[in-house]
Design goal:
101 residues; alpha+beta; two-stranded antiparallel sheet; two-stranded parallel sheet; 4 helices
Length: 101
């Protein structure tokens, strides 16, 4: 997943799905640490009611404040405002379990 973060794409989404307890949050925590250790990156956990922080962070990258931004949304079903804030709306159907980058 670190390699996915560091690719040259302007923006991309990686969806990690799975049953409770399989390690999705642990994976996100580890990725956050690895990316933060690179320096220049902004890592944010987006919580319900804080969706605007995601938009602000992405704008910061576009203005050269950060090398990149890693937005982590745990329990995405509770962060309903994120779709309202997103720059591009693309419908996505998630398979029941896996990592789709």
């Amino acid at each position: 997943m670190r390699e996915w973060c560091l690719n040259d794409q302007t923006s991309s989404v990686c969806l990690v799905t799975g049953a409770g307890g399989v390690g999705k949050t642990r994976l996100a925590l580890r990725l956050e640490k690895e990316i933060a250790d690179l320096g220049g990156w902004l890592c944010l956990w987006i919580r319900a009611g804080k969706e605007a922080a995601a938009v602000k962070a992405v704008r910061g990258v576009r203005r050269g404040r950060h090398s990149g931004v890693l937005l982590i949304v745990d329990y995405a079903e509770t962060v309903l405002g994120l779709m309202k804030c997103s720059v591009r709306r693309q419908p996505m159907l998630a398979p029941p379990c896996g990592c789709y980058c």
